[in-house]
Each structure stands twice: as structure tokens, then as C-alpha cells.
Specification:
- This protein has a domain at 29-100.
- Helix content is 67%, strand content 7%.
- The chain is built from three helices and two strands.
- It has helices spanning 2-7, 30-61, 67-100, and strands at 11-14, 17-20.
- The chain is elongated, with a radius of gyration of 21 Å.
């Protein structure tokens, strides 16, 4: 556990040397870091969802009446829609919890 906090530390002083951390200067607490990671994760998942929608739509168009290909593309499209609903609801829940507990940070 100590290694984890050493890795995310903003600055470590060893003797007379100071080593700066890789994070931005506005990240001062673990909540700020979690907020940044949450926002990065949301963006990453959104990009994956866009590609999933594009691939499912392409497969749907190219099924050309083949019922097996059509049902496979429809299943992928349904999965992408469910993923979008989960992504949106998790974003809203986190924002509501952050508002209720008055969490401040770069991403909240």
C-alpha cells in the first residue's frame, strides 16, 4: 500500500533532492485522482461505444438478408445501447453523489 501512495505522490524529498510527481499540480487528494481516473475511464468507454455502434451498424447493413448475420448485428447493437445506458447512469450517479457529499475536484 505504501508503494501505491509513493507512486502517486506529488513530490518526494530524499535527502537534499526533491523529485516531482507526474500528476498535475491541481491533484492534491486521492479524491482528485479518482475523479481524474473516472473521467478518463468515461471517455475511454465512450470511444469504445462509438466504435461498437459503428461496427454493429456496418454489420447490420451488410447482413444482406442473412438472418444469422442480422441477429448477430442486432445483438451487438443491443449490447451497445445497454452499455450507453450504463455509462450514462453511472455518470449521473457519480455526479449526484459528488453533489450530495460536496466533493470538489478537477472532474467533479
Amino acid at each position: 500500500m505504501l508503494l501505491f501512495f509513493t507512486v502517486i505522490a506529488q513530490e518526494i524529498i530524499i535527502g537534499d533532492r526533491t523529485i516531482k510527481g507526474p500528476l498535475r499540480s491541481d491533484i492534491t487528494t486521492i479524491w482528485d485522482l479518482l475523479s481524474l481516473l473516472f473521467n478518463f475511464g468515461m471517455g475511454f468507454v465512450a470511444i469504445i461505444l462509438v466504435f461498437t455502434f459503428i461496427m454493429a451498424g456496418y454489420e447490420l447493413i451488410n447482413s444482406q438478408g442473412n438472418s444469422e448475420k442480422f441477429s448477430d448485428a442486432k445483438r451487438k447493437l443491443t449490447g451497445a445501447i445497454i452499455g450507453l445506458i450504463l455509462l450514462t447512469s453511472s455518470f449521473v450517479i457519480v455526479k449526484i453523489v459528488a453533489y450530495i457529499f460536496n466533493l470538489q475536484g478537477p472532474g467533479f
